[in-house]
Amino acid sequence: MLNYLLQRFWQACLVLITVSILSFVLIYLSGDPIAALIPLNARQEDIDNIRRAYNLDQPLIIQYWLFLGKALQGDMGESFRYRTDALRLVLGRLPNTILLAGASLLLSSIIAFPLGIWAARSKFSPSRWHLLDNFISTGSLLLLSLPSFWLGVLLILVFAGALRWLPASGAGTFQQLILPTITVSAFSTGLLVRLIRRSVYDTFKQQFVVVARSKGLAEQWVAWRHVLPNAIIPVITVMGLQFGALLGGSVVVETVFAWPGVGWLMIQAVESRDLPIIRAAVLILSLFIVLINLGVDVLYTILDPRVKLGKSS
Amino acid sequence: MFSKQIRKSPALLIGILIVVLVATVALVSMVWTPQPPQQQELSRSLLPPFWMPGAQPGFALGTDLNGRDLLSRIMTGARSALFVGITSVFIGGSIGLVLGLLAGYFGGWVESVIMRLVDIQLSLPGVLLAIAILAAIGKGLGNVVLVLGLVSWVQYARVVRGSTLAVRQREFVQGAQAIGAGHWDIIRRHIVPNIMPPLLVVATVNVSSNILAEAALSYLGVGVSLSTVTWGGMLNEGRAVYELAWWNAVWPGLAIVLIVFGINLLGDGLSED
Lengths: 313, 273
Fold this sequence. Notes:
The structure holds 2 protein chains of 2 kinds. Chain A contains 11 helices and no strands. Chain A is mainly alpha-helical. Chain A has helices spanning 2-29, 44-53, 60-72, 86-122, 130-144, 148-162, 174-204, 207-214, 219-256, 262-271, 275-303. By secondary structure, chain B is an all-alpha fold. Chain B has helices at 2-8, 10-31, 70-106, 108-123, 126-137, 141-168, 171-178, 183-220, 231-238, 247-271. Chains A and B meet through helix 1, helix 5, helix 6, helix 9 and helix 10 of A and helix 4, helix 5, helix 8 and helix 10 of B.
């Protein structure tokens, strides 16, 4: 167990190191990193001084080391645009992003669990019920095919524009949370429905279910006591991973709804080429996603005793 | 290969029909569109679709703020969507195929290194990195294809490694090894042909997810530059007039849903056994 955890922890560190290298390199991919800081008529002397002040005269590896050291102390540079600490700006927006991702995951599980279970069970029912299964699985595939930003645009046009029921943008009230949540949850709902359907279906076909039935247990008891607890384990893993994906993927939807989260901040930073903010946003969201994935791994091993820790299959 | 599966799954047939339809439209747009897709004419700004009052013949789906014909632009956009989807899958698929084969066939430290890379890439937030990288290197069709390809290799590497592991154990591979065939020959003649079916399923689904990703990136304004007609770019440009002229918001989005849904149906039908 300890071995396994150490291995996962080491891997999480590797991921973070990769992200830090990538975000360090970003500033060089974009051309001269200080071009945005220097006035057009600057003297060569001043340019050299600025280079020295930002350590740009050092070899790359030293620069990376200095960058990493600062980042670990919470210094990710100053936003070009707001002239304040980039990390603080990103952290200030983080609660909104977590709120949106959490609400979306909650909504998709509320919808996906009944639909997925229903679809799976209808496969074992008389054949007229198979139509229901087809309907639910095709519907979930359609959800996976919707561009989330476009769904957001349509919802705004209908519910904020034509009907005037809900606000189109901003955050702070429950009404403002509704449309972005529906938009973000569409994709994960489709994903979860398909996964739950598959998992419940596969579990129903297993030996212990046959045994439970042949013991004469009531069908409802078999379903709720024997099938569901087993079918849910892989679903929980995906839900955890999906929460991480929602944090990273909310960039697009946040922009549609002007939802003041990390994603929207990052897109605005992209427009004004504010690299310290882009860097801080990528680093913080990645850190969160890595921590969530690590947590899911640990949770998985606790929930499912069949998983042999530390032994690769 | 298809005929048996089509009889079992009508969804697969619908998927194929949709993909063929969009591919045909893309091909036709190379030689003919109702109007030149980039031609601006402010006197024709925001014409409505054909059934609404004020519509003009020749502009069936209406026009955008600059008076460009939406139908012509959607036809041209099909080209970009298929191009991005297919080329990015080709890039990601090639990298993934090579690395997956190396990992699955040779095992040992090669496998450990590659699978560690896979684990790392899987934990990276894809969209986020794509946006950050594109913000740094600049927009453009080529850059988008490159970034999407580089982000997606890992899915292929996993599938290829898994299938290679299975195929490597089979008698015909062991037989080839016994008669002294070289590694390269065995991989090319015995392993690659046998791992193609699962690889194709992953590739199919990946085409659709990369088309979705490109649309999102272009909508955000970090993807393909506006000199190339893309559906995501059309939605980006139409933002200011959504309330005034809903057709600017609806048609390009429907086009995206159509092709992505079609490809997903296709992939779903192929993967069902």
